[in-house]
Specification:
The complex is a heterotrimer of chains A (165), B (435) and C (522).
Chain A lengths: L2 H5 L7 H9 L10 H12 L4 H10 L4 H8 L13 E6 L2 H4 L3 H12 L13 E6 L11 E3 L2 E3 L4 H9 L3
Parallel strand pairs in A: 1-2
Antiparallel strand pairs in A: 1-3, 3-4
Helix pairs in contact in A: 4-5, 7-8
Chain B lengths: L26 H6 L4 H7 L3 H11 L11 H6 L10 E6 L9 H7 L1 H15 L3 E6 L4 H16 L15 E6 L9 H8 L23 E5 H13 L1 H6 L10 E8 L5 E6 L2 E2 H8 L9 E5 L8 E2 L7 E2 L1 H6 L8 E6 L4 H15 L5 H18 L7 H12 L7 H15 L1 H18 L1
Parallel strand pairs in B: 1-2, 1-4, 2-3, 5-11
Antiparallel strand pairs in B: 5-6, 7-10, 8-9, 8-11
Chain C lengths: L4 E6 L2 E6 L4 H7 L23 E4 L6 E2 L10 E3 L3 H17 L14 H9 L17 E2 L4 E3 L9 H9 L5 E4 L6 E4 L12 H5 L5 E3 L12 E6 L8 E7 L2 E7 L12 H4 L15 E4 L2 E4 L2 H13 L3 E7 L4 H10 L4 E7 L7 E2 L7 E2 L7 H6 L6 H8 L4 E5 L5 H8 L3 E6 L11 E4 L8 E4 L4 E5 L12 H8 L8 H10 L9 H4 L4 E2 L12
Parallel strand pairs in C: 1-5, 16-17, 16-20, 20-21, 21-22
Antiparallel strand pairs in C: 1-2, 3-4, 3-5, 6-7, 7-10, 8-9, 11-12, 12-13, 14-15, 14-22, 18-19, 23-24, 24-25
Helix pairs in contact in C: 2-3, 8-12, 8-13
Classes of the chains: A alpha+beta (165), B alpha/beta (435), C alpha+beta (522).
Chain lengths: 165, 435, 522
Amino acid sequence: MSATDIAYRPVFVGDGKAKLEALFPKYPTRMSCLLPALWLVQEARGWISEPAIAEVAGVLELTPAYVKGVVTFYTMYHTHPVGRHFIQVCTTSPCNICGAEDVVKAFLQHTGCGELGNTSPDGRFTIIEVECLGACGFATPVLINDDFIEGVTPERVAGILQGYK
Amino acid sequence: MGFPHPSHAKETPVISRYFGDASARTFDGWTKRGGYEGLRKALGMTREQVVEEVKASGLRGRGGAGFPTGLKWSFMPKDVTKPHYLVCNADESEPGTFKDREILRWTPHQLLEGCAIGAHAIGAERIYIYVRGEFTVEHKILTAAVEEAYKNGALGEDVFGSGRRIDVVVHRGAGAYICGEETAMMNSIEGKRGNPRIKPPFPAVAGLWASPTTINNVETLAAAVHILQRGATWYKGLCLGNPKSTGTKLISVCGHVQRPGNYEITMGTPMTDLIFEMAGGMRPGRTLKAVIPGGSSVPIMTAEEIQGCQMDYEGIVAKGSMLGSGGMIVMDDSTDIVYQVMRLAKFYAHESCAQCTQCREGTAWTTRILERILAGHGKPEDLELLLDLADNMTGKTICVLSDSCAAPVVSAIKKFRGEFEAYLSRSRQRSMVTA
Amino acid sequence: MTPELVTVTIDGTQLQVPKGTSIIEAAKQAGVLVPHYCYHPSLPSPAVCRMCLVEVEKAPKLMPACVTTVTEGQVVHTDSEQARKARTGVLELLLINHPLDCPICDQSGECELQDYVFQEGQSATRYSDYAKRYNPVEDFGPDVLYVANRCILCTRCVRFMDDVAGSPVLNVSERGDRAFIGIDQHQLLDHAWAGNVVDLCPVGSLISKDFLHKARAWDLDKTGSVCTGCSQGCNVTIDTRDNTVVRLRPRANLDVNRHFICDTGRMNYRWMNRGDRIEAPLVRDGNRHLATDWDPALTRLRELVQRSATTVILASAGASLESLGMLRSLAGTAKLTAAVRVPLADAEAPLVGVPNLALRRERAPNGDGAKLLGYSTDFAAAVKAAATADLVVIVDVELTDAEATVVGAASAVVVLGTLQGMELAAAQVILPITNVAEENGSFVNRDLRVQRYQQARTAPGMGRPTWWICAEVAPGAAPATAAEAFALACGQIPGLAGMTYTDLGLNGMVMPGSTMASVGGG
């Protein structure tokens, strides 16, 4: 057993358990509750650790390996800890031709993350490029945690970051 | 309206009529605007009558494939021996497309009404609305609307006193473009990796949990509301071109136009009207270079090809591309086509589910060749290699993600070969210097 | 009910196959092997490798032969230009990442990637700038190593664990070209049937630790046999190299074990190679045993047989039907007590995805054959009876000290044994016999299916099959071959009379009229 196992606090107890059980009547099988259950874990813990995978597997009568296969399929589930504010900048073609890559550069510069995927030294930010956010007419869209910000230009970046401490 | 811009005279706002009007978002607001009339009407009809009405309207799937909606509904078994399911595809993620998000954002009850009509038509009691994970705002709005609809009897065990039970579950995706493919979406709802399934069996026979299932796009279901409200004949009359393409279509216009946004047009509207009048045309000093008319998966069109092109299913096919999801990416002369094709290929390589060999390896290989060309290390045979690879990736796999990656590559090489060759000749010159 | 037949034409051969048959299976019947990776007849088919694409007339595009079923009048071309191009295309894509480390790969020589690369003439890829690379080897469990670099993601292993073993411990992780086969870090591939993933893997990505670098596939001789691990009677192939058994692999038998064997059976071969064998006939001379030629030993045995009025046979339930049958004739007119020892384990280990397939509690291959021949399974009672017998014949069992003491009280003891340690000081004659890998024979499994096994190696020293020894000394018919011994044994069993080796074929035959007939179905 590694250190992370010992430190792990289960998500599906108390209120968490109630949230999980509220999912059950919505689906005819336990397996179907997997995506929403993983969202509950990520909301509670910020990322989905190995012990969390084991916990989800346990409550949904699945194996950890199965759950991990699903977790790694979906890019929005974090399998590593990320900064307090997770910044996703769309850089797919429609935004790309409108200057999305400059927006990414501005975010990297203003957050001190240095590289994509890195977390800033103060633990505040992690930035990734994301494929199409579905707001191509509002280039460049940026998703910071659950906040969907449209029409971001390099000039706006510093101001936007002010709101995320 | 031409959201986020004022409506243009050449638009026909039906679905988009209340975009931008926050008061249309609530149950009361929607009802005041004539909402839920379509559903009430549908509940007074038999399943078959609703299907016939939608068949008669000529409505075709707005998600990309353009399959006749009424016909699709009619494939569902008449006898309900197993539970039937309706899945609403709100996993809008085709690059260039952003119409469904506005329906979700501004008129969630329009969608719920459409869903309930669809559920009634196919004999389903439960609807799963699959909202892509990135649509955080839309997810909240929709969840609130569902609660409201239950409170007001528009959903639940006895919808508007009709005795029909209709439930809605909002299922949130988690970042996978491929889940927009209907069979992948069913796997995702079942708690699996979003791998497309082999067809047959088709969803109407064995879909979600092996039960009969129909999957409809958000815009399709929203359109059904108005067909029920105002009748098939009215809807069918909305047609400027081919009679097989009826009604209105939301077109998302993005890229290098002055007024990017959603424009609702009558089927058959000239493409030039859309780009140059409604969307305001190019930025000053720029000229049009290329258009990807139906989401990133369809062949690229040149500025010449869009002349005289009608915006409907047949009109765009006649010009060598497809209407697809109605996501139009407009590129002006500042665009590096090679770079943008590489970006698209990279998108598909990122989103490939890893099942089929051609897609898993082919999308990544295509991307790397394009990157090599862009970096000045292209080889003279690279273009033929890309075309041959694209041929291997077309029509060979379970779903069409692989084909979607190949289409822009092939059309770009065909129509903008000069740009590729310019990169290649630069790398030749470089190798001569170093040699 | 006879299934409805449809007529199809595959590469010019017209044939009739049952409705619902896949093109790939129909093609096999037409003598055409459609190249494939993800398809396996004992697994659900996902149609993901896209190697089996074939041209079907009137179809708009190439169809995957593994999941497309035949229809009346269908015309299939597996070798059209289109189909060939699709196949070479897939191979080229697989070769982007697959390292050509065949010289150090255990799969080499029995690798489906090698085979099809050779067959289709697509030996390389036009892309060599990049290949994905992982740590060379990952430990997946007791006998399985995963070499991710070689993996072609056919997912046979994942589907086996999910759908057949019912223990989903493997997964496909990540997606796109970053995908790989993953395993939970706290869980090993230690399912009782997990070793099958090694056989299922079409390339050298999942390899056996037990077989690691032991032999090259082309140096192996393969012999059809039956697993001796339990009463299931799984069909196996014994692979030998230079007269040494180096591994056991499952041999397809849709009615018994489909394409699988359990790990216990798979590892149950090392004893076949043991060097501490009884190699020559030993005859008692005062206090010692002297090695002799066969003739003096057989003469001594014949004398003992002829003068005995009560005989007890204590045999292994791993002895063949032929040997057990002929042993009975040793008794002649004497009163006979015959028993076999059937080792019992605590529990079964079923393979849940295949009906009627498990590692059984009875850990011997021929307990039911012995019963059919009138042998008791009450070994202890027979040992007790041995104390007062004129002659006790012990066949390939190692007695406990207590049992040996009891048996020692008999007038005469004869040991027919394979291994040193089976000899008894009290024995008049000790004769070397062959083990299952060294003789031809047959077993009857728990469902009364009679199955043949064949000789895979030569016996050390002077070992002979038990039935041969008996034939030499017993009164009456003396079979010269295993086939004749089989016929004689069958003659003693109502229901088997008249059965021959030819009837058994490769996959055996259920005893006619048997109510215990296999429920697996084919």
